[in-house]
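Inputs:
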Amino acid sequence: MLFFLDTAKIDEVKEAAEMGILAGVTTNPSLVAKAGGDFKNIVKQICAIVEGPISLEVVAKNAKDLVKEARNLAKQAPNIVIKIPMGKEGIKAVTQLAAEGISTNVTLVFSVSQALLAANAGATYVSPFVGRIDDISWEGMDVVRDIVAVLDYYQFPTQVIAASIRHPLHVAEAAKAGAHIATVPFEVLEKLFDHPLTDIGVERFNKDWDKVKKK
Ligand code: G3P
């Protein structure tokens, strides 16, 4: 399972890229608003850092406008993926963009049926939102597991991005569920490094090494 970073903050993208584990970036309008600054400039900077897929969301009421916006965004770099919200107009837009060879990521997916619609339309990625399903007292990871199984059974090339990841356990569970990618907020990425036994072990090694050096 690969790691994408779910952010529009440049310093976070830079730091994750330096770790060498960053396979791509996903953003959404809320994350762009949170990051602040000019959208075009944010896109330019992320593209300069990341070689992998960068999902940028289009916002419009109908398929025609979604496609128009998508074409403009896709022109900016070859690794741009157009993120499109689930819905009739969104699926029409995905079908058109797939025909034009433009990669898409269908977002706000909460069920197997929605994922199947996206896959049939030719979506490159589908993004089930784990945390938001958990928020309504349902098991978000079951939806990821079922989507992975169904798309795999019918041999769709569409990849599954586990999104709305809230904590490290979500990451481990997404991998066990067979998600191709987990897109994680930077805070969650940082937490993946932590384990109390690692901290205790490092401290013990450091103390013992100090003793060795004193001899
Ligand atoms: O990748 C989708 C993500 O940005 C939504 O996360 O925590 O707002 O549900 P959240």
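The chain has a mean pLDDT of 97. Flag for discussion at group meeting.
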